[in-house]
Amino acid sequence: MSSGYQEFQPSAELLPYVECYWLHRFETQGERESPVQRCMPFGTLELILHLDDNRCDALFDGQWEKLPPAFLVGLYRDAVQWKTVGSCRKFGIRLRPESALELFKIPIAPLFNQFTDLESCFGKSINRLVDNVYGLREMRDVVRVVENFLRGLLKNTQSGQRHISEATRLIRQSKGRLSIDALSENLFISKRQLERIFKDHYGTTPKMYQRIIRFRNAYEAFSGMSSAPNWADISYKFGYSDQAHFIRDFKDFTSEVPTYIFQDQYQYFRLPDKQVRFA
C-alpha cells in the first residue's frame, strides 16, 4: 500500500489563473481502504478529475458519499474528509477564485462550501476534457491535455470585474493581513460595496476569504517545521491578535487545535517541497 501527492507548475500564460496542477494517488492490492485524508481550505477552487474508474468517497453530514468522476469545488471554509477503497488517482486543477469569472465566466457564489459535477456547471462540452485525460499514466500527458483545454479559453478571457479580481489578489498578496478597511481604501470603494461584490461572486464575505488565506499561510508555515512550533510566534507573524485568537480560528476551520494538526500531518494534504515543471 502506498500513497503520494505531487504538484505540477502551470505554463507562464496560465499562471494568472492556475495556481498549480496536482496528483493524489493511492495504490494497493484488491479492495483495501485508504486512511482517511483531510483537505484544508486553501482559498482556491478545485477542478478535480478521477483518472481511472475507481472514485473516492467524501464525508458529508456524517455519511460517506461517492464523488462524481469529475467535479468543481467552490471556495471552502471547512476541512473535507475523504477516502478510497482500492487504488485511485485524482488529478486537480487548483484555480485562483477570480479565474471563474475571467476564464470560465461562471458564477461560483452558489458553490461556497459546495461542489458540483462538471457537466452541471459547464455543459456536455466539458466531457471532452474528461475523456481525453481518462486512463493517461504519464502526468506530462495529462498536463498537456489540460493546458490545451485551458489555452482554448484564453481567447475569450474577460476581466471586466476589476474590483473583485483586484481585491482577491490583494488579500492573497498580504497573506490575509490586509484589513477590510485598508482593502476598501485601496480599491476606492465602500466596505458595503466590497461586501456585496464578494457575496455576489464568491458566496461569502471578504472577511471570510481573508481569514481563509491567513489560515492557509499560517498552516503552510508550521507544517514544514521539523520541531514543535512556537504558537505565539506563529500568531504574531500572521497578524492574529493573540495565541487564543489563532487557536480559535484553527478550530473553526478544522475542528482541531493546531498542535494536533502538526502531530498528525499524515492525515492532511501537504504541499510538497517544490513543484514539478515540465519543459
Automatic annotation (TrEMBL):
**Record keyword S-adenosyl-L-methionine present:** no
**Record carries keyword Transcription regulation:** yes
What keywords is this UniProt entry annotated with?
DNA-binding, Transcription, Transcription regulation
| Entry protein name | Transcriptional regulator, AraC family
Q: Which residues form the HTH araC/xylS-type domain?
A: 165-264
Source organism, top-level taxon: Bacteria
- Please name the GO terms that the record assigns under molecular function: DNA-binding transcription factor activity; sequence-specific DNA binding
Under the heading PANTHER family, the entry gives: HTH-TYPE TRANSCRIPTIONAL ACTIVATOR RHAS (PTHR46796:SF13), HTH-TYPE TRANSCRIPTIONAL ACTIVATOR RHAS-RELATED (PTHR46796)
